[in-house]
Write a structure and sequence with these properties.
The complex is a heterodimer of chains A (about 110) and B (about 120). Chain A is an all-beta fold and about 110 residues long. Chain A contains no helices and eleven strands. Chain B contains no helices and eleven strands. In chain B, a hairpin with a 5-residue loop joins strand 5 and strand 6. Classes of the chains: A mainly beta (about 110), B mainly beta (about 120). Chains A and B meet through strand 4, strand 5 and strand 9 of A and strand 5, strand 9 and strand 10 of B.
Chain lengths: ~110, ~120
Amino acid sequence: SQQGEEDPQALSIQEGENATMNCSYKTSINNLQWYRQNSGRGLVHLILIRSNEREKHSGRLRVTLDTSKKSSSLLITASRAADTASYFCATEIMDSNYQLIWGAGTKLIIKP
Amino acid sequence: GAVVSQHPSRVICKSGTSVKIECRSLDFQATTMFWYRQFPKQSLMLMATSNEGSKATYEQGVEKDKFLINHASLTLSTLTVTSAHPEDSSFYICSARDGGQGMNTEAFFGQGTRLTVV
């Protein structure tokens, strides 16, 4: 089942620009996670942000979490062609046996 | 980081045959594994949650007798697609959580299996 909605569904930008993707969810969560998927491959974990955290950084990635609005954003700064992939948010809801609820994903294309 | 190995990465089978997909956690004990199905250009659809030593919990609409899941050890879960049909063709992905880390930890994913039923 999906509780997350992501926007935009697709994003195409020039190399060097910043890319912002948004995720909304519906129920209370333990944490929210962002993953990346290259075409036809498995998923790679990017960042996990806990429900009591508001912002987290990892290299060129910045994630924010607003639990009052039940939303999160993923910012990729100084994008590179290699960042081209699909990005998914996933929420770990409370009392869920670690089950993740997935957003629909954002297809990011970085034009060289 | 922890590694989950999924095998095979691609398989083509004939209608009516069964296919087994393996998911192994290589350097941690996975008390819980998840099996997903992903359609083209779509998100992951959870099929079932597999707990070591117990029966899998299937999501609504997923046929238990068709998608057999076995999680016999802390490092191995298998998904068997029985009596495969062309509509079972899809990308199947497993993920595992490190049971010793508790909540607020990431999930580790296998590389996925592209199943084509002809």
